[in-house]
Write a sequence for this structure.
């Protein structure tokens, strides 16, 4: 019998009984193809997720290469989403890749994430994180959040109108809005931290798609890259949340833009 690409995982009960087909059929949108996105995208493609939408307007720079291993020095100056797709297509020619070399904003976010079974947030901007949270809540699309700083990071799985959302966890935007210069994208981060957190996001995504995730939606899982511990911080859905808690947002089935 010829060897298959997924032979080493098909023996797992979660994969063998239609699980591999679930991975192949899932449509996953990845917002941000930087440090988190590099390990996330390779991991998802590796296990057999076939439908990937990659969104990133940014171009590759030399300072990205300590953590964004989708790219090589030859990619410097080129768009990340396009170069990521090129690299992944070589890794698995069967991938169905959608590429959006666009900056996510209020005018395009619906078209960018509509139709996704799961959105994975790999951005370094608080503003975009809030916008994605609000849009996912409105569209009822579950998403996985992730962020890194220095040696540390966290992941969280959000089910809109069921678990705590990002606003339930953090409060409204004005409480944490920071000047552009303090974005984590320009902050210091050890290159291995996003590799770990991006892989954790991929592992969580796989478990969610396979229906075997035991992570508590709405809670956050914090990874400490110095002592290697993972701590869970509980978050309850806030009935008065300005994003997911009020009846106003969804009154009359309103899902408008
Ligand atoms: Zn909320």
């Amino acid at each position: 019998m010829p060897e298959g690409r997924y032979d080493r995982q098909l023996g797992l009960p979660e994969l063998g009984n239609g699980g591999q087909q679930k991975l192949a059929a899932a449509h996953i949108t990845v917002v941000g193809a930087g440090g988190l996105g590099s390990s996330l995208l390779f991991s998802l493609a590796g296990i057999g997720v076939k439908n990937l939408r990659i969104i990133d307007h940014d171009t590759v720079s030399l300072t990205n290469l300590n953590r964004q291993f989708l790219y090589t020095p030859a990619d410097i100056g080129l768009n990340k989403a396009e170069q990521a797709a090129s690299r992944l297509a070589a890794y698995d020619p069967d991938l169905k890749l959608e590429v959006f070399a666009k900056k996510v904003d209020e005018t395009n976010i619906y078209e960018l994430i509509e139709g996704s079974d799961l959105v994975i947030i790999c951005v370094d901007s608080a503003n975009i994180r809030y916008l994605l949270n609000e849009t996912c809540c409105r569209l009822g699309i579950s998403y996985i959040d992730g962020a890194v700083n220095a040696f540390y990071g966290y992941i969280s799985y959000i089910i809109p109108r069921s678990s705590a959302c990002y606003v339930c966890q953090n409060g409204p935007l004005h409480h944490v809005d920071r000047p552009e210069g303090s974005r984590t994208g320009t902050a210091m981060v050890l290159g291995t931290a996003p590799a770990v957190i991006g892989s954790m996001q991929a592992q969580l995504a796989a478990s969610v798609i396979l229906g075997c995730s035991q992570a508590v939606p709405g809670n956050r899982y914090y990874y400490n890259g110095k002592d290697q511990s993972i701590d869970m911080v509980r978050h309850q859905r806030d009935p008065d949340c300005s994003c997911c808690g009020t009846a106003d947002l969804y009154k009359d089935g309103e899902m408008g833009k």
The longest strand covers residues 143-149. The beta strands are 27-31, 51-55, 96-100, 118-121, 143-149, 152-158, 220-224, 230-233. Confidence is low (pLDDT under 50) at residues 251-257. The longest helix spans residues 192-210.
